[in-house]
Design brief:
Shape: globular
CATH class of the largest domain: Alpha Beta
Helix content: 25-40%
Number of strands: 20
CATH topology of the largest domain: Uridine Diphospho-n-acetylenolpyruvylglucosamine Reductase, domain 3
Strand order of the largest sheet: 14-11-13-12-18-19-16
Mean pLDDT: 95
Largest sheet: 7 strands, antiparallel
Length: about 450
């Protein structure tokens, strides 16, 4: 059962009574009804690629892991309705492929898409590299099928693009991390598949230029921006060293990867090159390279997508999935770098992430050469980062969720009224507290 009781980051190792792998919604309903009657706590799990420990049981050995990975049907794809209905165990990459076969695009995209599942993506409200244009999982969610804590099944798999009949219940389950019910299928929005693609990798000298570059991109290319991804200079150096990659531009303190998409390739590269020329002329960027073919596009993207793996190889990771208003990203980068350099000079500050929506992964690595344990500075690092984020009007959880990692932060940093509303919703849908206890909300 090792793969079911350990998280991807190897931070949590739990124990479980057993792992159940139902193959149908009816079997899920039977499992939940039985657990409800007998007071057995349930931990729902998809691809187990989450970064906040939400899918791992505790150490009691009394909880049951219920996996969705055998729910493998794509129930419908409609290129007129621009919708796809699929079961929870389908991976994001498989959804992308099925949408592509229908001439459409499923736009949710992130590094773990080959193993992350639809149910988990909805349950955590996963974001990713294209969220700046298409939004997170909740923004793409049209309908949902959920097995509730008592075994009842709510079939809300509507593919309507407008439905204003009462509360939007589907949105309760997007981001609930298995604490309100188990998502067994979802209806998701598709978008037209773009025919044109242009990708560039840029270098910038300072933090102020990061915000200025985004403002210029948005002003000139707003309708075409698919991604604008930030990578620190130290992060680029690390991914080159650990993963054997090459940089397409001169090394700098900051880098931004840009991708434009459009219905037609006509003029798209010219648009991107024109913006880059303007940015160079204004001194916003210091160097740029435009991908000339798909292989180069993939090579540019690996510099961003392999950041997590490179940091994992380099030492102990202190991850901070934070977001601030886009206008404050440059200030965030400058203040965190300066404060952490002063407080913890032996650590590597390696931020990267989604510039276009203000979601920066302010990651810090304790180099392996310093030894694996103890590392008492982890709490100090988190305090520094979260204090700065709060001062900038940001959030401590942008796309990875709360899980078990951030329950204390939620209790500390969110208003009492907000927490009370969350507890009331939890109590209404899971009065016995059997759904993923101890995740999101602190266990009373």
């Amino acid at each position: 059962m090792a793969g079911y009781v350990t998280d991807w980051r190897d931070l949590y190792r739990g124990r479980a009574r057993c792992v159940l792998r139902p193959a149908s919604v009816a079997e899920f309903a039977d499992v939940m009804a039985y657990c409800h009657v007998h007071g057995i706590a349930v931990v729902p799990q998809g691809g187990n690629t989450g970064l906040a420990g939400a899918a791992v049981p505790d150490g009691s050995g009394q909880q049951v892991v219920v996996s969705t990975t055998r729910l493998r049907q794509i129930r419908s794809v409609d290129a007129v309705d621009m919708s796809i209905v699929a079961e929870a165990g389908i991976t994001i990459a498989e959804l992308q492929s099925a949408a592509g076969d229908a001439g459409a695009l499923f736009p949710l995209s992130f590094a773990a898409e080959g193993s992350a599942t639809l149910g988990g993506a909805v349950a955590t409200n996963a974001g990713g590299t294209a969220a700046v244009r298409y939004g997170s999982a909740r923004d793409l969610l049209l309908g949902v099928e959920v097995v509730l804590a008592d075994g009842r099944v709510w079939n809300g798999l509507r593919t309507l693009h407008k439905d204003n009949a009462g509360y939007a219940l589907r949105h309760l389950f997007a981001g609930s991390e298995g604490t309100l019910g188990i998502v067994t299928a979802a209806a998701m929005r598709l978008v037209p598949r773009p025919a044109g693609r242009a990708v560039a990798f840029t270098a910038l000298a300072d933090e102020a230029a990061v915000g200025a570059f985004w403002a210029l991109l948005r002003a000139r290319c707003a309708g075409a921006i698919r991604a604008a991804e930030y990578i620190s200079g130290h992060g680029l150096a690390l991914v080159m060293h650990e993963m054997g990659l090459r940089a397409p531009v001169a090394r700098a303190a900051h880098h931004v990867l840009v991708e434009l998409n459009a219905a037609s390739a006509d003029g798209l590269c010219d648009l991107l090159e024109g913006v880059l020329a303007e940015a160079l002329e204004q001194g916003i960027i210091t160097d740029a390279a435009v991908a000339q073919n798909e292989d180069q596009c993939a090579a540019f993207w690996r510099l961003r997508e392999d950041q997590t793996e490179a940091q994992k190889r380099a030492g102990v990771n202190y991850k901070h999935d934070i977001a601030v208003p886009i206008s404050r990203v440059g200030e965030l980068l400058a203040r965190c770098r300066a404060a952490l350099a002063q407080r913890c000079p032996d650590l590597l500050v390696l931020p990267f992430g989604h510039l276009g929506d203000g979601n920066i992964h302010m990651n810090v690595v304790r180099p392996a050469a310093l030894g694996a344990a103890p590392h008492p500075e982890e709490g100090e690092v988190a305090g520094v980062v979260h204090d700065i984020v709060a001062a900038l009007g940001g959030t401590f959880s942008a796309e990875h969720g709360i899980g078990r990692t951030k329950t204390d932060l939620l209790e500390t940093l969110r208003p009492a009224v907000e927490l009370d509303l969350m507890r009331r919703i939890k109590a209404a849908l899971d009065p016995a507290g059997l759904m993923n206890p101890g995740k999101v909300l602190r266990q009373e």
